[in-house]
Amino acid sequence: MDFRKTEFIRSAAGPEGFIRDGLPQVAFAGRSNVGKSSVINRICDRKNFARVGSAPGKTIHINYFLTDKRLYLTDLPGYGYAKVGKDERDRWGKLMETYFAEPGMISFGILVVDIRHAPTKDDVTMYRGFQRTGCPCMVLANKADKLKATQVEESLRCIRDTLKLSEDTLLLPFSAEKGTNRDVLLSTIEKSLGL
Ligand code: GTP
Ligand code: MG
Predict the structure, then answer these.
(1) Spatial contact of 127 and 31, defined as CB atoms under 8 Å apart
(2) Ligand whose nearest atom lies closest to the CA of 114
(3) What are the residues facing 112 on neighbouring strands?
(4) Does ligand 1 lie within 6 Å of residue 146's CB atom?
(5) What is 6-193's CATH superfamily?
(6) Looking at ligand 1, which atom is closest to the CA of residue 75?
(7) In the prediction, which pLDDT does 84 show?
(8) Does 176 sit in the ligand 1 pocket, CB within 6 Å?
(9) Which of the four pLDDT bands, split at 50, 70 and 90, describes residue 95?
């Protein structure tokens, strides 16, 4: 698998845009600004590839990136941005609901959280959403570069407790900024998809 060979395929605003070609999809969900697009950029080792940091909460789209013609990295729209109005929140809810309800959409779920903060209620709901699909999932604790090494263990424990992760669920400290644990993430994705 060459994760550097990743191309943008399309943006879906609704079910008519969903990709259903049978290739596995690795779905990235998480709060707005937590770094989902940055994680995807880091996976592909590209800068400014998946769009980073512009107008949080405004792009209610699912973005599909095809890696090595073998799997999709699916960038889901973020949630929890305070300034989002009701219409946008409704649009987000409808899009996510249809995506999560359709069987076979998600092959591997990655919930991205901020390692510095306890997961929010929305994070817990999102994680349950992944679980309900029955697909394997993991949690990526991003922005690890912002914590002192001595704080990491305690933060991970808090995240594990709040999300009630089972012992065999991978919770990986990560830094999209520095590339920390990129190799572990890539091998986990490959293994979970049997590639
Ligand atoms: P939405 O698309 O709005 O849902 O946000 P997102 O989750 O895709 O976040 P995005 O990748 O746009 O990153 C948000 C901000 O966090 C940007 O300013 C990034 O540079 C920063 N960021 C992302 N990952 C890291 C990281 O690992 N460390 C640090 N220090 N900053 C990061
Ligand atoms: Mg993004």
Answers:
(1) no
(2) 1
(3) 30, 140
(4) yes
(5) P-loop containing nucleotide triphosphate hydrolases (3.40.50.300)
(6) 8
(7) 80
(8) yes
(9) very high
